[in-house]
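// run 5 | inverse folding | seed 20
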């Protein structure tokens, strides 16, 4: 069973908070109806009623779109992924493809950092089966 995970889950909360901003602005900026006194008010009211309904629908759709954009932006920044487990080397059945990228730049020579990286790569390769494929990339400048 695959589950949904986020690399930066705080952005989901930021998206929800951000999605509440258009709602707050909508509630604060509601227009109050003004009363106009004319002798032919009924003709104005009939045309005004149809315009009000159409504009009200447009405003609700615009509010919904703003909320969805901000919520989806927060989810996008959270970088969602589907995985059974965050462990890369977990055996889930079948053939696995493994890529190991080893940094060979000068900065890796500090305090046996390169030796630790090689040991970690050897440990990952040791957990593979004969049917699995592996690739090693050396990276520097």
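// decoded
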């Amino acid at each position: 069973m695959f589950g949904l995970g986020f690399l930066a889950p705080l952005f989901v909360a930021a998206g929800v908070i951000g999605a509440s901003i258009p709602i707050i602005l909508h509630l604060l900026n509601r227009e109050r109806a003004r009363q106009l006194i004319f002798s032919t008010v009924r003709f104005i009211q009939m045309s005004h009623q149809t315009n009000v309904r159409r504009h009200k629908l447009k405003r609700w759709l615009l509010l919904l779109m703003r909320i969805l954009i901000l919520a989806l932006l927060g989810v996008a920044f959270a970088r969602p992924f589907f995985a059974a487990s965050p462990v890369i080397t977990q055996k889930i059945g079948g053939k696995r493809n493994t890529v190991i990228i080893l940094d060979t730049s000068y900065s890796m020579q500090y305090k046996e950092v390169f030796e630790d990286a090689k040991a970690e790569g050897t440990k990952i390769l040791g957990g593979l089966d004969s049917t699995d494929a592996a690739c090693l990339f050396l990276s520097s400048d």
